[in-house]
Amino acid sequence: MSSRGRWRPAVSLLPALLVTAGGIYFALRGIELDAVGDSLASSDYSTMPPALLLLGLAVYLRVVRWRLLFSASTRPAFRPATEALLIGHFFNNVLPVRAGEIIRIVSLHARAGTSRAETLATIVVERAFDVLALLVLFFATLPWLPHVSWVRGAAVLAIGLSIALAATVLALARYGVRPVRFFLLPLARLPFVSVARVESGADSLVRGVAALRDARMGVATFSLTLASWLVFSASFWLVLIGFDRDLPLSAGVLVAFATGLALALPSGPAALGVFEAAVVLALTAYGVPRSEALSAALVIHAFSVVPFLVAGAVVLVARGGIGPGLGVWRLAGNRPEGEAEGRVQPVERPEERHEPVVEPKRTRGDVVGAEQPARDEPAESSDRIDVANVLDLEPGSGEQRR
Fold it and tell me: pTM for the whole thing?
């Protein structure tokens, strides 16, 4: 590997490192560590159990919303969708730049046979609906919020996102899959991607944004998105009142809004530092001292991370996702035959085959040295992530495996 290639991963993570460093600096600026410790020791954690129940309800609403984003013919069952979502959250908390979303795509494909391109499109729609729902909640509760200096920035973001979504809906309604095929067509220049694979991937991507083309599906999924963020806000508020009983419910909304937008930035594992900075920014608007705000941020962050780490680890262990010498693809959901839903078969590596080699029988008419028919070569292992695998650019990839 050249020196340039050796440094490429570090350079690609540089924005996330800078954002994380900036978040840590902002969260720790002007903090008295003794005051943080005293606040953690004197807070009331009796509201944590009901907050965890609300967190579980929010996750349930997220799974229902995610399944609804798929077309009816390719919609995954509830169990594999839940497992893939929890695995994705697990890896989001241990890998930088929310890399768990890629593993969520691979996991659902391995568990339910869904198109990776369609799944990628549903996740993009999820993120757009999340930001739009947070903006709706922010402006709906604005009369009850304290003065914040970033209202104008939120308004600009809301207008920009609304215009982008409207343009996407109009383009899909007027031209269908053609714009997507046009933008993906340059991928056909790659040696391992054909035009047919590009067209198949484009079809799957368009099917994944069905919520932007179907009004009923769009309203239903956006309503579930709003409901899930309301539940998240209520769970955050229950944690906050353990530190300050006088904080209103709108404080939970503002914390959810700030952290939800902060998670869209490239950052390190679990958005460490960025999450705390967002909570401190929200709580100081209510006059909460920075040290007490940081202590609340640490607890809310642990509340938002630890349950997903535990649940994701349980799913990985229960479904055979952890073991010696297992790579990302195995961790993401590949299992031995018969262990899954009966749809996905494990990739057989060439070195694992032990079938005897049977030479073809020669007849008198055979010429010595004549060219023999070529045997089928073993399939190349797919234990790698490339453009074709992530976008599912293969003929017929849009159909769900039966």
Answer: 0.78
